[in-house]
Amino acid sequence: MNRSNWWKTSISDISPGIIRYHGYPVEQLISSEHVGMASMIWLMTRGELPTVPQARLLERALVAGVDHGPQAPSIAIARMAMTCGVGINSAMASATNVLGDVHGGAGQELMEIFRTILDDPRPLSEAVEAEIKRLRSDNRYVPGFGHRFHPVDPRRAPLVAAVETARDVGVVEGRHLEVALEIERQINLNRDRPIPMNIDGATAIIYAELGFEPVLGRGLFILSRSVGALAHAWEESQSSQRNKGPEHRSILPTYTGSPERAVP
């Protein structure tokens, strides 16, 4: 292999005095009135700048997922890490490293389900019904619906409304929105206590409608939540507390092992 081609990238063109992202000079991106952080995320992952309405819709999803307080494991871990004397970067990394399939991955899973349903040639209601049955037969939850803390996730309504508005003016097609609403309708049939869409479901709609691949859906959520991890790590660093665990030191874990016994 040619040593000059050891690293190859179509993303950034860097040489003395030159910085370009997908061909756009960084000085122009900095100076543009229409390029913000959401636009840069789109550019770096997709290779082109979004329209202003596309960037605004993406930004709404990023804003919504920033934080959910110390009861969220990722945020609690960021705060605990900070009391152990690590740098703020380590605290943020500790938080994002636990955003896996269970905590933070539901959006990606739902985006994959959207794709499966939209590829199904049957009418939408039948395709959704079949997918829900498949998940239940595998003893799995439908990702993106229900919340252990909120009876109704307050982030759902404004995000869904934003997609509906974007659909009505032609920014997105609305196909993934239609699938999500049909899933929500079916899983709530004959239920006294509804299972509403949560933040993962609502942001999955936006990321899918904007054309992001499912794995990028998880990455976008991690980018969003890292802002909350940064804020909480910084706040905890001002507390002067040291070595804080998940519970107050007066609360001991329940011991379930053998009773006290003598060493033979």
TrEMBL record:
<dbReference type="InterPro" id="IPR036969">
    <property type="entry name" value="Citrate_synthase_sf"/>
</dbReference>
<dbReference type="InterPro" id="IPR016143">
    <property type="entry name" value="Citrate_synth-like_sm_a-sub"/>
</dbReference>
<dbReference type="Pfam" id="PF00285">
    <property type="entry name" value="Citrate_synt"/>
</dbReference>
<comment type="pathway">
    <text>Carbohydrate metabolism; tricarboxylic acid cycle.</text>
</comment>
<dbReference type="InterPro" id="IPR016142">
    <property type="entry name" value="Citrate_synth-like_lrg_a-sub"/>
</dbReference>
<keyword id="KW-0808">Transferase</keyword>
<protein>
    <recommendedName>
        <fullName>citrate synthase (unknown stereospecificity)</fullName>
        <ecNumber>2.3.3.16</ecNumber>
    </recommendedName>
</protein>
<feature type="region of interest" description="Disordered">
    <location>
        <begin position="236"/>
        <end position="264"/>
    </location>
</feature>
<dbReference type="InterPro" id="IPR002020">
    <property type="entry name" value="Citrate_synthase"/>
</dbReference>
<comment type="similarity">
    <text>Belongs to the citrate synthase family.</text>
</comment>
<dbReference type="GO" id="GO:0008816">
    <property type="term" value="F:citryl-CoA lyase activity"/>
</dbReference>
<keyword id="KW-0456">Lyase</keyword>
